[in-house]
Amino acid sequence: MPSNSLIYVSLLVSAMLPHAAQARLSPAESRMVETVRSEQDRSIALLERLVNVNSGTMNLAGVEKVGQMMRAELEPLGFDVRWVPMAAVGRAGHIVAIHKGDGKGKRLLLIGHLDTVFEQHSPFQTFVRKGDKAEGPGAGDDKGGMVVMLAALRAMQAAGTLKAADIEIVLTGDEEDAGSPVETARAALVEAGKRADVALDFEGLVRDGGRDMGSIARRSSYSWTITATGRTGHSSLIFTPQYGDGAANELARIVTAFRQELPEPNLTFNVGLIAAGANASIEADGARASASGKTNIIPAIAIARGDFRTLTNDQTLRVRQKMEAIVARHAPGTDAKIEFEEGYPSMAPTAGNRAVLASLNGVNRDLGLPEMPELDPLKRGAGDISFVAGDVDGLAGLGPYSTGDHAPGEAVDLPSISTQAQRAAILMSRLSREPRK
Q: What stretch or stretches form a coiled coil here (predicted)?
């Protein structure tokens, strides 16, 4: 067994480790850490106020009210804030806020969103704290992310590093259900991406096996609709040369071929809704279908809706072409077409994105926190940062850790707000001092 003196030395070294980590921070960075920690109650109180305002995507007044609340937080930090209305696409609008620094360092784009998936009819409406967790609509996605962003910016202001930083913030009002056409709905974000050198997305942190992960990639999300048609008649004539296979069997052929021929790494595809019969239709919202028919009638129409997700734009093009080829083969006596809808592009893993994660891991090292490995992109969904990924290096997942997102009971881990804000404040301060390429 070890001697008492060895035990004492071991305990002493362990106690000194956090101080050794803090010693690697500059005085300004230490001030940021202290500010974030001391203002944690303020951050939680703001989160409660934001969560208790319903801002489901289609609650346009609620989304705008949350935008007003964010304006009130950003203007005292020196941001020029404007509201970009989105009535043209049937949505509320976006917040665009610009902080002019000294023009010498990298220009940062911070991304978040004002809306949630919980509309006014949802029974889940209220912030409820439960110890180190808090439940509420958008508590993690993405009101918690906006709170992290603000906590980091306040810490930068307190430490004097915000003054020289060139930062643009875009908080979209329809991230959960983008307006159409998407070119209009995301114009402000795309323009901001072209001006930036680094993009930081404040949606939620992902943990894998209890470990904080770095998100350098996000997959795309595209929806599709297949409409198959066939010759209708008495069921006893199915599969004859005169009547062919019928619309339902044509659709079944297509869906089966997708399952057999499409699989490849980083691709997922899903059939979410099917209707077939003598008559069939899908409602305008794309979420409900109706059909009528009889067992002794060959179906004249069959409709399916689904989605697919890819890691790169090249993969998106390749998968679309394969789907189109499968649809075009046609069973006897049938026809079919596939239509693709607007969606979210991919954020491919790039060397530039890995460099931003390396910078964040430098912050982790100096804070005495574990390194954040790259997250498998299959483990997170699509997001707004993908719209600028072709123009600027970026990193996703700077918001807090949460569980149960998009469902009643969504809960944010409150201590992660502080940790993420410390990371973000130091990362942004360091990046804003790096010379532009």
A: none
Q: What is the CATH number of domain 222-340?
A: 3.30.70.360
pLDDT digits 0-9 by tens, 358-406: 999 999 999 999 999 999 999 988 999 999 999 999 999 999 999 999 9
Cα separation of 10 and 319, whole Å?
57
Domain 8-218+346-431 sits in CATH at 3.40.630.10
- Within the chain, all domains assigned CATH 3.30.70.360 are found at 222-340
CA dihedral sign of residues 363, 367, 368, 373: negative
- Which amino acid, residue 260? Q
In the chain, ranges of CATH 3.40.630.10 domains: 8-218+346-431
Q: Which amino acid is at 79?
A: F
Q: How far apart are CA 105 and CA 108, in angstroms?
A: 9
C-alpha–C-alpha distance, residues 114 and 174, integer Å: 8
CB neighbourhood size of 195 (10 A): 14
Task: Say if CB 187 and CB 89 are below 8 A apart.
Answer: no
Residue entry with tokens 């998009």? 406
Contact present, 235 and 296 (Cβ < 8 Å): yes
Cα separation, 284 vs 337, in Å, equals: 18
Give dist(CA 82, CA 170) in Å, integer.
10
Q: Tens digits of per-residue pLDDT, 35-53? A: 999 999 999 999 999 999 9
Cα–Cα dist 135/126, whole Å: 8
